[in-house]
Amino acid sequence: MNEQQLKSVLDQAKSAGIQNILALRGDDGGIMLASKGCDGGMTHAVDLVRFIRKYYGDYFGIAVAGHPEGHERSEFSLEEEVVHLKEKIEAGADFIITQFFYDPQVFVNFVHRCRNEGINCPILPGVMPIQSFSSFQRMTGYCGTRVPTEVFERLSPIKDNDEAVKEVGCQITIDLCQSVINAGACHGVHFYTLNLERSTSMILERMMRTDNALDEGKSKYAGLNRTLPWRQSALEKRSKQEDVRPIHWANRPKSYVLRTEAWDEFPNGRWGPSTSPAFGELSDSHFYSYTMGSEEDRRVMLGEAPISVQEINEVFAMYLEGVISHIPWCETPLQPESFVLQKPLAALNRNGFLTLNSQPSVNGARSDDPVYGWGGKGGYVYQKAYVECFISSRQMSCLKELVSSDPRLNLYAVNCDGKEDRVGIEEDGVTALTWGVFPNREVLQPTIFDPAVFVVWAEEAFLLWKTMWQNLYESGSVSWELIEDIHDSYFLVAIIDHDFVGDSNHLWNALLSL
Questions:
Q1: What is the pTM of this model?
Q2: Which of 307, 424, 440, 457 is the most exposed place for a label (fewest CB within 10 A)?
């Protein structure tokens, strides 16, 4: 595929709302490519990564391949391959998915080798469930995958019984996943299903029943992997400049990148005045989310035909409890630091506080903390409790009265017409919500609240009611009118608890008292 054809394919992917790309050179049919690819094409995956970043900026998330046992047809040593892998990360790749393996120590060693080389992005182990003995032999032979003796000893006696192989293969895969997770070597697992989802579903169900291994496997690299609390841009110019962002797009980071991609300079050290460069205009691409799927998928998640506010509240609560994976304002599942708030947040949502964004207070957590850590070794991180939510006009009156009587709390609110209300927040006041102190560095404050920027975000947040939810229903129907009323009458509110040293539950208890 030459560059023109490649750009056409990527344009189609972008138009379809696809936002993640696995950048591979591809199979050469067993013939080693010496010095050049096809006419006008690319020789190496690193060229593809550079090409995507050059023409599409941060729009696509890019994964690249890693080979824990070395590439089966490579002329390079494993050490040299890790150097080449680092080049792909430096070119703009976001994370690594490995070739499948059956020896957990192979993956653990590979991760250590990558970290020692300075590769700090997430590395997902590629895991292939065993469907049958013949396919297992064929795939491991073709890919040059080493199989531990123990695995062969478990499979050989039942090799002619496909159902038994599948059953034992599931347990082998579970043992493998738990080994790499418990070793602290990964953030998750990538399954090669080969369009056979039954075994993978069975594996996941059993793992969730056995101590919820994926949640409990805390990576010792977690705090060290994050340079900042949010994912940095893969564009070199932006990643070197930008170290401050407003909190509001935390769960819609691609929209923030799109709306700021035309900036010549990015906030560095301090957010600066509210008269910073304007945010880009909203377009259809801001309201398309591949994570929300098709219209039918959205109906399943958001409701076939809701007729009451309580049903809307329940959707938000179910997102927080992990029953549904996405809502229009949150393109990813709940972040680990929000797990500690899961119960009070779910209760708040059922009470009509429809939360979009939140964080607990943190008073001096180590920078390598697996949940709150960021910024590297030897530091301490802090943050103020914060919540952002849609509430009704009646609730707005009660909330304003509560905040006015509590010196710890500030409030800023805006409705769909741009009407603003505030308690304790000055017109140009910018508040640091997250900061960290580190050896030989100035204090970093990477996450802020700016009332002027909140108004910009509010426009987008209100439009999501219409573009991602209301349009699922026939115009004028009960469900359509319900969403219309919420859009027209609710406020979007941000509440900050400035006392990060005192009672960490103060904000949540205060809101639940209303």
A1: 0.65
A2: 440
